[in-house]
Design brief:
By secondary structure, the chain is of the alpha/beta class. It has one domain: Aldolase class I (TIM Barrel), CATH 3.20.20. 46% of the residues lie in helices and 14% in strands. The chain is built from twelve helices and eight strands. An eight-stranded parallel sheet has the order 3-2-1-8-7-6-5-4. β2, α2 and β3 form a beta-alpha-beta unit. The protein is globular. The protein starts with a strand and ends with a helix.
């Protein structure tokens, strides 16, 4: 079972919305050098739900071709259209992915029966499923009781990524299901907590930019050096706080910041395009260099 740091990879777009493959190669190289355990593609940081099906197909094909065989990849295939979800899940299976992830039905809040029917329908793809519980984005929560109900009816479901930001709920997931199912935390302010309570993995955004920092935090917890891990968590929280001043989603700030590491992460999607002025760029460059120990 996958354990450790999983980077929620930013999708590198060309200006026309297609995939920038050379950019993807640079991003994956940084992740491999940084020591992460796996990639989560086309999720929230990867902006999958607003990405065209054609580009998502490109991403599925390119990532598994580029990534080394020892780097696990979990693709998110969620969409408002269940047929798109099923299509991408089948493609992932055919390309050799071992499992897929999908957010629950979005926009309209499903019934419990509807949740089971939804995941049963996706299970027709013949690939294992990790539920992506993104309470804020999907508009409702998938509780541990809901999860128990789903897995009882849908054997293809092998785990959950819980992005509820509810520490009590994450702990309940770990205690009730951690011995049998893949339980991943999310929310980069909860990295230390996720690892300390024994969750399988943390699916992380800031590791796009600082994979070494997050891997170091994970190792510190694994070695019982909680003081060091907490210092690293505080450092990550400080950078998260800094990013909020730009008034755009975090992945777009990180997309720009990656340039200061020599990595081109492509363009944002059309609806998330923005510009930083010269002063903002200098400020961002300075803090990235500070975090990397550049003098």
């Amino acid at each position: 079972m996958l354990r450790g740091v999983v980077t929620a990879l930013i999708t590198p777009f060309m200006d026309d919305g297609s995939l920038c493959r050379p950019c993807l190669e640079q991003q994956i190289e940084l992740q491999v050098k940084g020591g992460v355990n796996a990639l989560f593609i086309s999720g929230t940081y990867g902006e999958g739900v607003i990405t065209s099906t054609r580009t998502r197909e490109e991403l599925l094909k390119a990532t598994i071709e580029i990534a080394p065989s020892n780097l696990a990849i979990l693709p998110h295939v969620g969409s408002a259209d269940v047929e798109v979800v099923l299509h991408l899940a089948k493609l992932a299976r055919d390309l050799g992915y071992k499992a897929i992830s999908t957010v629950g039905p979005i926009y309209h809040v499903p019934t419990k029966t509807g949740l089971v029917k939804y995941f049963n329908y996706i299970a027709k793809a013949g690939v294992d499923i990790v539920i992506y519980n993104n309470k804020g984005r999907q508009g409702y929560n998938i509780s541990p009781d809901d999860f128990e109900y789903i897995v009882r009816e849908v054997p293809s479901v092998i785990g959950i990524k819980d992005t509820s930001y509810d520490v009590d709920q994450l702990l309940e997931y770990v205690k009730r299901f951690g011995s049998k199912y893949f339980i991943a935390g999310a929310g980069d302010n909860l990295l230390y907590y996720t690892f300390a309570i024994g969750a399988s993995a943390h699916i992380c955004g800031i590791s796009n930019l600082f994979p070494e920092l997050v891997v170091e935090l994970y190792r510190a917890v694994s070695e019982g050096n909680h003081a060091k891990a907490l210092e690293l968590q505080y450092k990550i929280n400080s950078f998260r706080k800094f990013m909020k001043k730009f008034g755009v989603e975090a992945q777009e700030v990180i997309r720009v910041a990656l340039k200061f590491r020599g990595v081109n992460a492509g363009s944002p999607p059309l609806q998330l395009k923005f510009e930083l002025n010269e002063q903002q760029l200098l400020e961002l460059k300075k803090i990235v260099e500070e975090y990397l120990g550049v003098k």
